[in-house]
Amino acid sequence: MPASPSTARAMNDRLALRLLQEEGSLTAGQLKQLTGLSRPTVADLVERLTTAGLIAVVGESGEQRRGPNARLYGIVADRAHLAALDVRTEGVTVVVSDLLGTELARASVPIADGTGTGPAVEQAVTLVERAAKEAGADRLHTVAIGAPGLIDPATGELRNSTGLPEWHRRLAAALGERLQARVLVENETNLAALAEQRDGAARDRDTFVLLWLGLGIGAAVVLDGTLRRGASGSTGEIGFLPVPGTTGLPSATDCGGGFHSLAGAAAVAALATAHGVEAEATGHESPAATLVRAAVAGLVGAGGSADGRSAAVERNTRFLDALADRLAIGAASVVAVLDPGCVVLGGELGQAGGDVLAARVKARLTALSPLPTEVRPSVLGGSAVLRGALLMAREAAQDELFAPPTR
Description:
12 helices; 45% helix
């Protein structure tokens, strides 16, 4: 059944807006070429989108001729302002952007252990308000929050968890009430995967698994270009995965006996200490990430010379080999079930390990599994959560705003 005229107009408008988002400013002639639409249809949609305030003339093309055909059209970036939050146990970071994702302001606030729920929420909301003011935003259209924990698929809210501060769960409602904005919440690992797929290590992959290696352990699953959340919204809780090498088994309420106890930040830091690896704290990343980065730098700096390898090189080698052994155990289980073809080592630890750690995990995974699997280090590291939240906010805002009125 052919689309109605109003439906066809909306589809054409959305296509043109997506092209302007991806390609930048375009002339009507370029829009005609890229969309395959007729000249009158393009002229009609340009007029419609301009009247709706979604696009505007931003200049002229470099062609010799001048006039209407040379006008460059672009999305009105300040039509809406967005905010992305990375919520951690110890604090919050916020980025405010325009509709095209251009960063306009960034701010962070630490939230100390023992801070009450009310004061913690107030600190976080005030931070967002201050960042919005700095960005020159009268109001925020959409706010996306990346947080640890499970998202209820029915409500879109963080589930109650004894392992997370109560203020995490109260923050979304407080932001929505105070800012009168649309507020979305997503698991941090899922957001990191979206960011790695759009801008990072998985740009060329429709199917892959991101292993989030940070304070905790998690995974995000993207199959055929779609993020999979599972029946309960809990796909990727691999910290609970029973694996060999632990002192016990995980329980429904404690992942201490699971994969988390081998590859979480605390376990990685302890492993480094056991191998004699040391590094000076930087304050910009977790101690575990600093230790992994230092071990990798020690090997790269040694240049692989064979003239009697130093004790430090031997320590770094043994530590990274042992860490790769642990990571491969969890990765092999995921690969055996999903056959993703690609595993991205994400989070601070994945980025700190870089190609050196990824190559070691790849070698061990090849020995453990018959399924061919690439192993890549994260490009975005810990910043992937914030980037993913910004992408989520932009997508949601554009879906709403890019539904042009019909006439």
